[in-house]
Amino acid sequence: MEIEKNNRIRNDNNSISKYVSQRILILFLAILFFNGFLNNFVDIGKVYFGTLLIDIFYVISSVLEIIIILKRNKITVTDINVIFFIFFYLYFARIFLDSNNDIYSKFLSFRDRVFYITIFIFVQEFIYSIDDIKRIKKWLFIFSIFISLFGIFQYIFREHLSLILLTPKSDNIFSYYGTNIVRSTGLIGNPIIFGNFELLFYSIFLTRFFTRSNLKNFIFVLITFFAIIFTFSRVAYLGTFIITFVLMIVYIFKYKSKRTLTSYLSILTIILLSMILILVFRNDIINSFIYKDLILGNNPSVKGSTQTHIHLLEKSIEIIKSNWIFGTGIGTQRYGTNVQFYNTDGSWMAMMIEIGIPMFILYLAFLIKCIIKSYELSRKNLIIRDIGIGFFIFSIYEMIFANFINSAYFGKIFYIMYWFIFGIILSSHKVINKKEKIVNSINGKQNIF
User: Fold this and answer.
1) Most CB within 10 Å of its CB: which of 59, 127, 237, 279?
2) Residue 376 neighbours by CB distance under 10 Å
3) Which of 118, 11, 108 is nearest to 64 (CA)?
4) In terms of Cα–Cα distance, which of 367, 381, 378, 377 is closest to 418?
């Protein structure tokens, strides 16, 4: 009786722990998605309230993670963890070794580039079962669709909304010379960061649609598509085309044995409708701002942006050549530092300038390992196939193209969300292994009798 009572108490405690963990993750997701609203509407001086809440969560989670490790008396060792923590400690050590910048800027850089990645570790600790993954995914999709709709709302009602609803705190309105266009931000970041943010979810929702071709998933794809359109980001437009093309090829040829007639008809219908719309509205498209001024680059703002990109790229290459081993130092690629040059475009260029090529290669090795792992797990586990394949395709596009063009990858909310989603993908491996062990244990007991 005493043993049964102890087991019942232990199960009750586990149930409470799981319930609380789920609510904490969902609350963190809400803070992440609505970070811009928190920053804009809760004024606590120079401190950004939403960012403060995020940092508090990270600190508390770090303490809990250390307690869990001490309680278990062991550390989970994987290739991903080993590479990450080598990079983590090397980066941290350089805070005290580099002399090119003040200590505060160095710690901020460490937080933004490295410490925020640890969310993928924390997420795994908060997820216990397949039901947990389903619940987190549900809220992830709900929040993402809301922000996408808000981005569309921003553009449609741009002339009637106050600045606090159009741009993140301390930012000006993002527009183009000679137009009344106000680019959508979703209060996630600037339009380029928001476009990248939406592109990640577009890749996931498009994967869901190709996997399960139904009206709901098609509507989700359309919502994220139009949210991307209203950012007026050329890189996001190109990314949308690349990801759509690649996913269509992958699901038509790679998974052709698993496709149904409905799925094929859905893809064919989308292609035909797109072609018809292009033919019907051909003249309107040719004369539109998006084609004539944005894509062809005739608008003065677009021309200026292109020239700035080229200048920054050339300048970045010069600095990397001169500092390729150790870089210019931790924190030197932040506004307000004592270094004259700040690279505003190209995440990879900025990182190589700051830490040098050898450490950059280590970071790249970690990222590639994570991308490969996401693909392997998504092939094995149906529960995360949509976010796994979507994450995988987006990550390849981001790594080999977008990160050389702009710095959206290191946008705070996008960066944390990216690694949060990877944490969900990794957690599927843990919960499925746990389920298999339970099944094997039950089968083993049955075999005894």
Assistant:
1) 127
2) 14
3) 118
4) 367
Q: What tens digit of pLDDT does each residue of 211-264 get?
A: 887 889 989 999 999 999 999 999 999 999 999 989 888 877 665 545 555 666
Of 92, 98, 82, the residue nearest 325 (C-alpha): 98
Q: pTM (2 decimals)?
A: 0.89
Please say whether the beta carbons of 395 and 374 come within 8 A.
yes
Dihedral angle, C-alpha 403, 404, 410, 415, nearest 10 °: 0
What's the pLDDT at 393?
95
- The structural domain count of the chain equals 1
Q: Identify the domain containing residue 154 by its residue range.
A: 2-448
- Please, which residues have CB within 8 angstroms of residue 380's CB and are 6 or more apart in sequence? 432
Q: Please check whether residue 310 is in contact with residue 302, taking contact to mean a CB–CB distance below 8 angstroms.
A: no
